[in-house]
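Researcher: I need the complex structure. Ligand is uridine-5'-diphosphate-xylopyranose. Inputs:
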Amino acid sequence: MRVTVIGAGYVGLVTAAGFAEFGNEVICVDKVKEKIDTLNRGEIPFYEPGLKELVEKGTKDQRLEFTQDIDRAIKEALVIFIAVGTPPRGDGGADLSHVEEVARTIAKNLNDYKVVVTKSTVPVGTGDKIEAIIEETKKGEVEFDVASNPEFLREGSAVYDFLHPDRVVIGTESDSARAILRDLYRPLYLRDTPFVFTTRKTSELIKYASNSFLAMKISFINEIANLCDLVDADVHVVAKGMGLDGRIGPKFLHPGPGYGGSCFPKDTMALRKIAEEVGYHFKLVNSTIEVNQQQREVAVKKIEEAAGSLKGKTVALLGLSFKPNTDDIRESPAVDIALRLLERGAKIRAFDPAAMKTASEVLKDKGEVLYAKDSYNAAEGADLLVVATEWNQFRNLNLERLKESLKEPVVVDLRNIYEPEKMKSLGFKYWGMGRR
Ligand code: UDX
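Model: Output:
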């Protein structure tokens, strides 16, 4: 099948490489020349395990092409995926200007029947909008369908998630679009991946409901952790005890400094806005957002408590990305915490395996930040150490050596990667989240 993916960001690029892997002929378009040039050189514009190999395989087998020529890419495809950004507007709603622009370009190049599919996370009713734009702009009597097919992949395991999803959601009222999309996903269909076929609007809402529910789980366990600190209980055992109930499940019950990344913060705010626009006040989503914002300050207060006062202190900060295995710092709690520490007069010695370059752009001119060559170098002479992102390599540090590097043996573990008892027995003053 001939597929075009518009937008070479996380979702677009993984989708394009994934469909090429399924044996389709895929064109991936982006208007940013630099991005296309980078991809044509065989490089990936961001850090994502396994993606380079998948892209290499697709291009080598001539099933995957990168271009800026959107007109040709549209004309040649049967299925067109829209995977452009939907950044938050000032009021929290999703900015659809890129999606709308793409819809107009599709209409201008509509030479025969096509299925236009939204992969970007878009508010309920966006499919209707796209349909109206194409209908108004197209020349002549060419048929088309608009479908919704939200993507649930996680950064850091995006390739695996695309090839092994928990489910595929397809929203369309058209029989032919449904049949074409089922055919496109045939390799997963044959592998017994569950498929949800539904209407376009229901499909659009499934994505927001899923992300907001996961965000709510995180905010919930963060509040339980805060409570554990006050009543002297262990949040991990609480989470385990809860998670063994099959109705609750063990995942996404890990406390920390709050969720970040390109999806949860944006999608919770967008769902709140979607509800507001139809006169519904979504209390749980509101509280999820509020708790998440508050959790960053909970983390900073803990660091302040451990440091005595932050003014003039040097903090060794391990982790800057919003989660491990990515260089993405969008809405990263680690970066937010770094900014708050600098505001309170602290100096930072930071180390992150992938995100130091991206973070340095945000942190420059904000205070004294040194980028260390490794974790021990970050700890060198620091008054305390803060674990802000749970990269695997931080779990296996030589703790004796770490203690020797630090000026004071104080560790604030915002991701609970160390065992409190062990840390205490090694002579550390240790703060975790909800496990006093
Ligand atoms: C998320 C969704 O998981 C994915 O389905 C959707 O398509 C995009 O948004 P992603 O943003 O890549 O994916 O990261 P995810 O692994 O879900 O983590 C999001 C944030 O929640 C991170 O900041 C992470 O540290 C935090 N988190 C996650 C917790 O604090 N506790 C948890 O138990 C799980």
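Model: Summary of the prediction. The mean pLDDT is 97.
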